[in-house]
Specification:
Strands 1, 2, 3, 4, 5, 6, 7, 8 and 9 form a 9-stranded mixed beta sheet that branches. The protein has one domain. A hairpin with a 6-residue loop joins strand 7 and strand 8. By secondary structure, it is an alpha+beta fold. The protein has 5 helices and 9 strands; from the N terminus they run ααβββββααββββα.
């Protein structure tokens, strides 16, 4: 009888503890996101709130913002207003949690172009560094088995109604929005029998970033051509200015040369005139002397 009472008390305590965990799952997930996302992206990240529907097994993650790496001017790289997650409630107490669907709706992505790099490319490099190599993965699997760490399988990740704002540092943060086509990632972690939350977040971000780069590549020709045209315009302007300056200097040199020549000719002409004047004066003096001589009697 005593044993039954003890068992009953233990069961009640476990049920209360289970309900307490379930009721606080929103806070637990919020803490997890605020820990995992910065770990994966190496950027500051923050989620405002996480709501959990106990009966439907649905999470709503509100306003997840992933900031930019250092050195970029725009407010953020990702602003995810609403993320909806459907969880198989029966898997919460097992080693592998099954997530039926993750829906990321209307994300706002900012692609800021810097000198030689971009904010999204820097984040992709950070994400790649957070993904384990094959040897590290095997080591992690052994450690997780020892520690009994939780793993996840995600049947479907969908990104819908996304927009990419393109911003160049030289343009002072001006953005040109580009529509992001829907993205689907299926059977995440299924082949491996479950993966860690860090790996799941990293793979999702990496796949999304690669899809964003594909879109930018296909539509970026105009942006690149525009930048190229601006660059060529500057080069042509400098070239034109250089040619103009060259012509002006040449013209100035020719004018100076002509001026010097004119001065030389003028000086020569003046010299000739002076010589001619001298000769005329000499002749006049000679003629005057002859005239005086004739005027004096006896002087012939």
């Amino acid at each position: 009888m005593k044993a039954l009472k003890i068992i009953g008390i233990i069961v009640v305590v476990l049920i209360i503890a289970l309900f307490a965990i379930i009721l606080n799952l929103g806070k637990i997930v919020k803490t997890g996101i605020n820990t995992v996302v910065p770990q994966v992206t190496k950027c500051e990240a923050h989620v405002d709130d996480v709501n959990f529907n106990v009966f439907g097994g649905k999470f709503e993650i509100k306003n997840l913002v992933i900031k930019n790496p250092e050195g970029y001017k725009t407010d953020h790289a990702f602003a995810l207003g609403h993320i909806f997650v459907n969880v198989n409630m029966g898997s919460l107490m097992s080693d592998v949690i099954e997530i039926d669907q993750v829906l990321i709706d209307a994300p706002e992505i900012t692609y800021e172009v810097g000198l030689g790099n971009s904010n999204l490319n820097t984040i992709l490099e950070n994400v790649n560094s957070s993904l384990p190599s094959s040897d590290e993965e095997k080591k992690e699997e052994k450690e997780e088995k020892k520690e009994g760490g939780k793993k996840v399988v995600v049947n479907l990740v969908k990104v819908t109604n996304g927009k990419i704002g393109v911003s160049a540092k030289i343009a002072g943060g001006m953005e040109a929005p580009i529509v992001l086509p829907d993205i689907e990632i299926k059977d995440l972690g299924k082949k491996e029998g479950g993966i860690s939350m860090v790996q799941a977040a990293a793979i999702t971000l990496k796949t999304t970033l690669l899809s964003i780069f594909d879109v930018l590549k296909s539509s970026g020709k105009l942006l690149l051509d525009g930048a190229k045209a601006i660059g060529e315009g500057i080069v042509d302007g400098v070239k034109s200015l250089g040619d103009g300056a060259k012509d002006s200097i040449k013209s100035l040199g020719d004018s100076a040369k002509d001026g010097v020549k004119s001065l030389e000719d003028g000086a020569k002409s003046l010299g000739d005139s002076a010589k001619e004047l001298k000769d005329n004066v000499k002749d006049n003096v000679k003629n005057a002397a002859e005239g005086l001589k004739n005027l004096i009697p006896g002087k012939k």
